[in-house]
Write a structure and sequence with these properties.
Elements (H helix, E strand, L loop, with lengths): L6 H7 L4 E6 L7 H7 L4 E5 L7 H14 L2 E5 L5 H9 L4 E4 L5 H11 L23 H10 L2 E6 L2 H5 L1 H5 L6 E5 H8 L8 H17 L2 E5 L4 H10 L1 E8 H17 L5
Parallel strand pairs: 1-2, 1-8, 2-3, 3-4, 4-5, 5-6, 6-7, 7-8
Helix pairs in contact: 2-3, 4-5
């Protein structure tokens, strides 16, 4: 029995964009198929900024595996149980917010990876291998190989420590949370500010030095997005289900209002 493949890891290894849809509103498992059909490679099950509970997040993660889209959970905090319970439920990736130092990144790896790299506790059977009753060493190897760890860098301190964070073994992606980063820089919403571009350069260079991948979210301006992709950012959150719903609904309402000639 092979583990379900992590499509994001394969996209990134090939130098391609790995595109994600962030879930804020969805509460049913069919969102995995919807996101896949729309051309996304991963979904971010956001438990930091939404009311999504553990059970719903677990159901969406588990349902995503056979659909062929990678379920990544943005956990609400740094405690080990936020990550471990979702990994046991089928998540193929964990995104930890506000990782400011190498020590925090090492704790994240310890919580999420099995020994000898980390200290994650091993449950009996795993959704990532379709609940096959495999030898423990085989389960550990296969599940770890197909798991993605994403550290969110969301403060000037995190950017300053980007090189040390990128050097942490077992981490895969350094993902800039641009909204919080700009707020902490004292330039909320100023995504095109030169200080932001410099932060992106610092992270991109740290990732190149240490063989990690650079990630970004919240960039909706095509020119700015192109600039950051050119810097090497490949792990890209394309927007939230709420954004997409409102954009489509707004355009439809506008069209229908125009049908009545004055």
């Amino acid at each position: 029995m092979n583990a379900y493949p992590n499509h994001v890891k394969r996209q990134l290894a090939a130098g391609q964009l790995a595109l994600g849809m962030v879930l804020r509103q969805a509460r049913t498992v069919d969102i995995a198929t919807i996101a896949k059909t729309c051309g996304f490679d991963w979904i971010s099950i956001d438990m930091e900024h939404t009311s999504l509970d553990l059970d719903m997040a677990a159901q969406i993660a588990n349902a995503s595996l056979a659909v062929g889209i990678t379920p990544i959970v943005r956990v609400p905090g740094k405690e080990h149980y936020h990550a471990s319970r979702l990994l046991d439920a089928g998540a193929q990736g964990i995104m930890v917010p506000h990782v400011d130092s190498a020590d925090e990144a090492r704790a994240m790896v310890s919580h999420c990876r099995f020994p000898p790299v980390g200290r994650r506790s091993l449950a009996s059977v795993q959704p990532q291998v379709a609940f096959a009753n495999l030898p423990a060493d085989e389960t550990i190897r296969k599940v770890d190989e197909e798991m993605l760890l994403v550290a969110m860098l969301e403060s000037p301190e995190a950017i300053e420590n980007a090189d040390a964070i990128a050097a942490v073994a077992g981490l895969d992606v350094l993902h800039i949370g641009i909204g919080d980063l700009c707020a902490e820089m004292g330039i909320p919403g100023k995504f095109a500010d030169p200080k932001v571009e410099e932060a992106f350069r610092v992270v991109a260079e740290a990732c190149r030095r240490h063989g990690k991948h650079a990630g970004m979210a919240g960039i909706h301006d095509p020119v700015l997005a192109q600039k950051f992709v050119d810097l090497g950012f490949r792990f890209v959150a394309g927007g939230t289900d709420l954004n997409f719903l409102m954009a489509g609904a707004r355009e439809r309402a506008k069209l229908l209002r125009g049908l009545l000639k004055s």
